[in-house]
Amino acid sequence: SQRRRDLSGLPKAQLHLHFGPACLRRDTLRFLSASPHFEEQRRLSLIDAVKQAETGEANGQKRYATKYWRRATLLSANDIIAAGFGPAPPPPDASEDTVLKDIKRMDNELHQPGAVGIWDQQWLARQLVASDPVGAETRCLKELYEDAETEGIAWVEICAGMNVKDGHVDATQMALWEVRLSAWAELERQYAGRVGLRFVINCPKTAADAAVLMKFLHAVDRGGAVVGVGQWGREASVTSRREAFAVCRDSGLVAVCVHAGEHALQAACPDGAEIDAARLAAYNGPANVRDAVEVARARRVGHGIEAIKDPLLMACLASTTASTTGGGEGGGAVSC
């Protein structure tokens, strides 16, 4: 049999990990589901899911309605972890065949109509976190450091939300960020020299909102926890955020995680959304990757697979410090 190498001791970097639901341990999800706080959250989430489903039906949005009826069913299950997250992942010593079968199962779930699989899982995890946001925040952050050290990951960049609305940072997020930064400072001292973890926030849509966000960060982040901005999720026009990226850059936050050119994933219509084909092509073709480099001055482009369709763009990416797979010391003005 082929000898398997233990890769845990090799130094690694995790450059794009969504904070919260996307990085919670299965044991933590089960812990939250057993919490007395969750029963009230389950009731509220169930009411909202049914309301969303009924609204979808009334508006003729069949996929949207189907999605929320399914999520209501998940919330009603006796064991929501088993219902929503399926079998436990293979153990570290599992055979290659077992691991490949599990990967294929998840891949099949990803592309079924109506956002089955990972999108339902993330939604369900958000309901669990909402039942005890402070407890979930601190536990998740602590476990991230533990897991990084175990897996030989020396540097972690976490994507975390921070929304601005009507000229103000969301009050709930403000409170959670203060908890998050306090826990982060203690963990950084504890893991100094072994694991470094930093945050990347989503770039606001407007320059005014970006200015509000930079002012808030200047007041609360005295330890340098937030190191960059990005754009992720369902891709949007990078050019529409040109001024916002500039405000963030002037405040010392470079673009390190700008998703662009991710057409293959978006074609699956995450969350059951109906995406206009022309809009999809405009936001996810090679031009979208070029905008990420030229407009946002991205040091790293998330995904970027559509760049392969443009040989000149590929040559430009190869000649700059911008990358679709790794970091660099770029970020200056680049023209592709």
TrEMBL record:
Ranges where the Adenosine deaminase domain occurs: 143-320
InterPro entries on file: A_deaminase_dom, Metal_Hydrolase
GO MF annotation list: deaminase activity
Protein name: Adenosine deaminase domain-containing protein
